[in-house]
Predict the 3D structure of the following.
Amino acid sequence: MAVKNFVVASFDDEAVLFPAVKKVRTAGYKIHDVYTPFPVHGLDHAMGLRETSLHTAGFIYGICGTTTALSCMSWIFTSDWPLNIGGKPHFPLPAFIPITFELTVLFAAVGMVMTFCYLCNLMPGVKKHIFHPRQTDDLFVMAIEVTAKTNAEEVKALLAQAGGLEINEQRAEAGWWYGRFDQDDEPTLYKNAQTAVNA
């Protein structure tokens, strides 16, 4: 797990958020993420995120389902347990089509859901740092990663000029971790880093 510094700013309107994202990207700063209370059309392009590869994963899962169905039925009916059913061939491909189709759809659907949950960190027990308590309620929150070449004060000034409301600097876990909501929200590494900063 990596503990990093972030400059966090909140916005109360998507019309203010969009120009702010463009200004931050033009200035060359790295946007860690933008949290919104509802899906904002075009925000992914404004942030420079690449197109999703989920459809490619779905195609691969579907091919795996097709291959599994045809291979399994072919092996069963031609090698493992061949039966003479009214003189019909041991490899009746037209009769295999319904099961092949169903298994293709099953593999693609389940595989895409699992891949989506993995990419979005939506697995049970996964927790992430909350930069602002209202980040998915009624505010738009932008977190900018502070690197060795980044001047935090310049970033704060840029965000204030772009219409940021609450601007602060936070030291937080950049990724995700497993935890329980009835225990501490912060991983041990994050708490140790906070202790070192406060000392």
